[in-house]
Design goal:
It contains 16 helices and 8 strands. The chain is an alpha/beta fold. An 8-stranded mixed beta sheet has the order 1-4-3-2-5-6-8-7, sandwiched between helices. Helix 3 (48-55) packs across helix 4, helix 10 packs across helix 11 and helix 14 (256-270) runs parallel beside helix 15.
C-alpha cells in the first residue's frame, strides 16, 4: 500500500537529545481543541505496566514507539522513565494529531512523525540528521493490530458491527481499500487469505460467496455475505463469523505482515547493547513471525544440534528477556476485553557472545 514518505507532522523537538537533558520539561498548555481530539482518539494501552517495567532497565536514550496510536504507551514511558525520550510513529493522521497533543507536555523529550513502521530506520536516520548526532536507540515498541478508536469509529470501515464504506486503511489518505481487494481478488486468493487467518473450515465457502455477491461496498454487506456462507450450526458458537474474515482483509489491505518482518529486522539492528525490543501481538500470525525472528536473533542463527557446542560460527548478539510470551493479567482482561488475545515478547541486545548475558533462555 502506498503511503506518503516519512516526515514531521507535529515534531515537538529534538533538542533534548542534543543537549543530554533528562526529566520533565515544564508543562505545556494544549492548543484549543486538543483535549477533545485526545478524548476522541482515546485508547487504553495494553499491558502498560509491563511495558514500562521492561523498559526501565534499558540505558538512557531513545525509545521508538513504532505504533504510536493515541500516545498511551509513550506518555507512560515518558512520565515514569526520566532517562528515556520517545520517537513515535503512526501512519494514521488522526492518531498522529491526537498523540501530538497528548505528548506536548513532555516538550523536548517527544518527537512525533507520521510514517509506516517499516520505514522506522529511515525515520530514525532523519532524526539523526536533524540534530547532527547519532541517535542512541535504547528501545523499540510495537503494539500491533487495530486500535480501539479505529474499531469504534464505524466510518473507518474496520468493524463488522456497523454499516460503513468498506475501507480498513490505517492511512485513509491513499492506497487501495478493502472494497478494492474484496471486489478484485479471485476466489483462490480470498480463500487462502482467510485460511491463513484461522478461518480454515469455511474459507472456500466464504470466498465463493463473496465472489458471487460482488460488488460489495459496505461492511454490513460483507458481514452478511459471510454470515450466510457459514452453516447455521457453526454460527451458534465462536462469536461473529465475520471476525476472522475482517481481520484477514485488514491485514492484507495494510500489508501488515510484510511490513512487520521488515520493521522487526530494522528495530533489532538499531538497538544499542542493553536496548530492548518489545512486541505486543494480537494475531497468531504476527506472534509466530515475532517468535521466529527473536529465536533466530537469540541463537545467532545457529543450526547445530541442541546440546552440542556450536560449530557453525554463529555470533549471538541478543538474548530473550524471558521464555515464551507474557499474557495480560486477569484484572486487565476484565477491565478491557480487547486486551485478552495480547502476547508480549521481549528481546535484548547484548555484547556479542557475552556469557554473563546468556542466562535466561535462548529459546522461546
Amino acid at each position: 500500500m502506498c503511503s506518503p514518505p516519512p516526515g514531521p507532522l507535529g515534531v515537538l523537538s529534538s533538542a533534548y537529545f542534543r543537549d543530554g537533558h533528562s526529566g520533565h520539561p515544564p508543562a505545556v498548555v494544549l492548543p484549543d481543541g486538543g483535549l477533545q481530539m485526545s478524548q476522541a482518539f482515546h485508547h487504553d494501552p495494553v499491558m502498560a505496566d509491563e511495558v514500562v517495567e521492561l523498559l526501565a532497565p534499558v540505558p538512557p536514550g531513545l525509545v521508538v514507539d513504532a505504533t504510536l496510536g493515541a500516545g498511551g504507551h509513550a506518555s507512560l514511558v515518558l512520565g515514569r522513565l526520566g532517562h528515556l525520550a520517545v520517537l513515535g510513529l503512526d501512519r494514521d493522521p488522526d492518531a498522529v494529531a491526537a498523540a501530538t497533543r497528548v505528548l506536548a507536555p513532555f516538550g523536548d523529550r517527544a518527537i512525533v512523525r507520521r510514517s509506516r513502521f517499516d520505514l522506522l530506520d529511515e525515520v530514525v536516520r532523519s532524526v539523526q540528521e536533524s540534530r547532527h548526532a547519532e541517535p542512541v536507540v535504547s528501545g523499540v515498541l510495537f503494539d500491533l493490530g487495530v486500535s480501539s478508536p479505529q474499531l469504534d469509529r464505524g466510518e473507518r470501515g474496520f468493524s463488522y458491527r456497523s454499516d460503513a464504506p468498506l475501507d480498513m486503511r490505517m492511512d485513509p489518505t491513499g492506497g487501495p481499500t478493502a472494497a478494492d481487494l474484496v471486489n478484485t481478488a479471485d476466489e483462490r486468493e480470498l480463500a487462502t487469505m482467510f485460511a491463513e487467518n484461522g478461518e480454515g473450515r469455511f474459507a472456500r465457502r466464504i470466498a465463493r460467496a463473496i465472489v458471487a455477491a460482488r460488488p460489495i461496498r459496505t461492511t454490513g454487506e460483507l458481514a452478511e455475505v459471510v454470515r450466510q456462507a457459514v452453516p447455521a450450526a457453526a454460527r451458534r458458537t465462536g462469536g461473529h463469523p465475520a471476525r476472522r474474515v475482517f481481520q484477514a482483509i485488514r491485514i492484507a489491505v495494510n500489508e501488515e505482515t510484510d511490513q512487520l518482518a521488515v520493521a522487526l529486522g530494522a528495530a533489532l539492528a538499531l538497538l544499542r547493547p542493553g536496548g530492548r525490543c518489545l512486541v505486543l501481538a494480537y494475531h497468531s500470525g504476527e506472534d509466530r513471525l515475532t517468535k521466529a525472528l527473536f529465536h533466530r536473533a537469540a541463537t545467532g542463527g545457529c543450526e547445530c544440534p541442541p546440546g552440542l557446542p556450536c560449530a557453525c560460527g554463529a555470533v549471538v548478539e541478543y538474548r530473550l528477556v524471558y521464555r515464551g510470551a507474557r499474557r495480560p493479567r486477569p484484572a486487565e482482561v476484565e477491565r478491557n476485553r480487547r486486551s485478552e488475545p495480547a502476547r508480549l515478547r521481549v528481546i535484548e541486545r547484548i555484547e556479542p557472545d557475552d556469557p554473563a548475558q546468556l542466562s535466561g533462555g535462548q529459546v522461546a
